Amino acid sequence: MATTAAAPQKRRRLWRVFRWLLLVVVPLLAVLIFFALLRPLTLLVAATQVRLWFEGIHSEYMDIPFAGSNQVRVHYFEGGSGDPVVLVHGLGGRAEDWANLMPLLVRGHHRLYALDLPGYGRSAWPRNASYSIAEESQAVEAFMDQLHLAHTDLAGWSMGGWIAMQVALDQPQRIRRLLVFDSAGITFNVNWNTALFEPDTPEKLRELDNLLWPTPAPPVPGFIQHAIFRYVGQHGWVVMRNMDSMLTGKALLDHKLGALKMPTLIVWGQQDHLIPVSVGEQIHRDVPQSEMEIFVGCGHLAAEQCAGRIAPVVNGFLDESSPAPGREAIVPK
């Protein structure tokens, strides 16, 4: 009799739990879906930050001098333990671009600092700046000053590689080892429209993605396209000011890279359609003690899309006692 009476009570308790879930969880899911449709980029960045937090990599802020101001707010990620490595993103990028590689380097026992350059990510974007290679290089040097990094490894990707090489030329005594990923910085034939870096139509966005991916890029959903166009409308002026400064050619490093004497690793995606592998090979020739690793099946976003294959090479280069100058290897899939 007691068992019979208990069954309806158990069903009522289960129904109350189910009803609570309907009243609380379903509206929360609806809000999350609505927010994802309205602000998908914000949600993607937030999800990346949570993933990095679980890997022991967290956000910090500092003030640095930049473009004539002594107080420009800069965001960066910090995590891991061991010898320091500073990571510099590329044009139109942000510190989260390194998110796939950072945890693998942390597990390799390195202390990482990945900054949002002024004008990008969650850093400030002062209107009076030119966002030239010289200004952004000085920002990286000021960032290192604030962290009291007297001797560090330095890595840069795309425009960030150009900046990293400039920093290494400016302050060679501070750079233990230099790493450049699919980097700009020397003269090459630009056979694409520079306006693609300010995409405001689906056609421009598709063309830009096809330059960045090793194979034709997957289609971008319409609601994400609209979010990208909104972001470009707000921040695209920084990218174009950066681009205009680079296109003057004043900061090019042709015939200067031979002054780099620290061990240097050059990483390239063999299917990079934006900055061809021939650019990396020329940097390799200009820096005789450099090593070069070319990854088959990877494009300009190799450090993101091929992070699992690249990380052992990077960790090995950072840890080896005697780098192999002049070595070039093609890494198959």
Folded structure, characterized:
This protein has about 325 residues and is α/β, with parallel strands linked by helices. The protein has a single domain, classed as Alpha/Beta hydrolase fold, catalytic domain (Rossmann fold), CATH 3.40.50. About 45% of the residues lie in helices and about 20% in strands. It is built from ten helices and nine strands. The chain has helices at about 1-40, 40-55, 100-105, 135-145, 160-170, 200-210, 220-245, 275-285, 300-305, 305-320, and strands at about 55-65, 70-80, 85-90, 110-115, 150-155, 175-180, 265-270, 290-295, 330. It has a nine-stranded mixed beta sheet, sandwiched between helices. Strand 3, helix 3 and strand 4 form a beta-alpha-beta unit. It is globular and about 85 Å long. The termini are far apart. The mean pLDDT is about 90.
Shape: globular
- Rg, Cα atoms, Å: 23 Å
At the fold tier of CATH, the topology name is Rossmann fold
> Helix segment count?
10
CATH class: Alpha Beta
CATH architecture: 3-Layer(aba) Sandwich
Number of β-strand runs: 9
- Domain count, please report it: 1
Strand composition percent: 15-25%
CATH superfamily: Alpha/Beta hydrolase fold, catalytic domain
Output mean pLDDT.
Answer: 91
Helix content: 40-55%
Main beta-sheet annotation:
9 strands, mixed
Could you name the ranges where pLDDT drops below 50 across 5 or more consecutive residues? none
Order of helices and strands: HHEEEHEHEHEHHEHEHHE
Report how far the terminal alpha carbons are from each other.
Answer: 68 Å
